[in-house]
Amino acid sequence: MSAKLNLDKLDYQIIQEMMEDAEISYADLGKKLFVSGGTIHVRIKKLEELKVVKGKKLSVDLKALGYDVIAFIGVYLEKSSLYDTVAKELKKIPQIVRLNYTTGNYSMFAEIVCKDIQELRYVLHDELQKIKGIERTETFISLEESLDRNVVVLPENC
Fold this sequence. Notes:
single chain, alpha+beta, Arc Repressor Mutant, subunit A, Alpha-Beta Plaits, 2 domains, 6 helices, elongated, Tscrpt_reg_AsnC/Lrp_C, WH_DNA-bd_sf, sequence-specific DNA binding, AsnC family transcriptional regulator
């Protein structure tokens, strides 16, 4: 995929640095990578146009905001052909923050963030159960998040 994108070493360095600190100014990043801030600006715009960079996100401590429950839900579908329909419905549930189509035991795997167990119960019982096409679910409650990081991106020739 990278060959089609025609990214060079500088593009990868910019991506890596911005993943570590999206608040760094283009001027400071340029100094760090020995190019001008204008070059960084042009490269970021190119990466956005190529859909490699999809915006910049604020990292928030959800526990500090009162979101105490993180859970993962394995979703069994009645038929795998129902994936698109069920995914569309799951996307309407704001507590679901990540959704993946998977191989293995589950057809889909979702990450859910809730303020408390009552909210989790509501989502599981009142929201998920009404979605046609879901055969059953299996819920895993996270006791602690031990790791949350980005992948290290490298040019193909490294």
